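Sequence decides. Consider this:

===
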Amino acid sequence: MNSEKTKNKLIYFLALGSMCLALVLIMYNFFYKTVEVDVMKNIELVYTGENGSASVTVENNTEDLNQRIQEFMETVEYEVSPNSNLSNGDTIHIIATYDDELSMTYHYQPINTEKEFIVQGLNNRFESKDDIPENYLNEILTESENYITEHADEIFHLDPETASQEDVSLNNISQLYCAFLKSTQTSDRIISVYQLDYASKEQAVTIYYLVCVPNINDGNRVIRQNIYGETAYLSSEELQNLNIESYIHRVFGTQYSIEKIETSTNQDQNTEKQ
């Protein structure tokens, strides 16, 4: 009988000791043990610009179930050098900084706080309009016209003289001019000037409108959200002769080298003018 009691007590104390040891280990692992955290593990390099003129930002995509690690990683910031006029093959150096006080509180030891990367994957600019693939150019022109149709009502009501008119319809879109604008400072772009013929209850209205598609490069991608437009305010002399080329050189000639692009649409327009 006494031996059975002794055995039960022994089992009880062993179980209690095991629980205490487990609690100690848990407390040590969560509160006292120094844990290494790789601050470069889940970074993504996001480039802006093209080969020879790019810059980069560093994004950390860590999503850790451990809320403390997640909290700590949100304090990490990255400094990149150099970070301008980057080209494919360049070496960039990234230094990570973080909240020292938080890392000590949570017993974290950040590792890989400095690292070098080779720049790669940057798109190249075209030397001239002749280097632009035909299918890419066609996509650009299609998206330019889509921009017009999607914003037709907004374009009409931008003009204070027509802003109050109602029941407006866009009856015709005519491309008058297209050009490749090459710059040493910003991205290259393709611009198109359209004649928009509207009809409303009050009158027929003609508006000249310019659509710009930026970021033209051998990535051959049209970024729709970057397309923008503006009213083309032609001078009276330019209007008289419908000299769109003069308007383009007047507005953009100091910032860009301009190469006119002949399309089937504006060729037809030029033939009609002659």
User: Anything to note?
Assistant: The chain has eight helices and twelve strands. The mean pLDDT is 87. The radius of gyration is 32 Å.
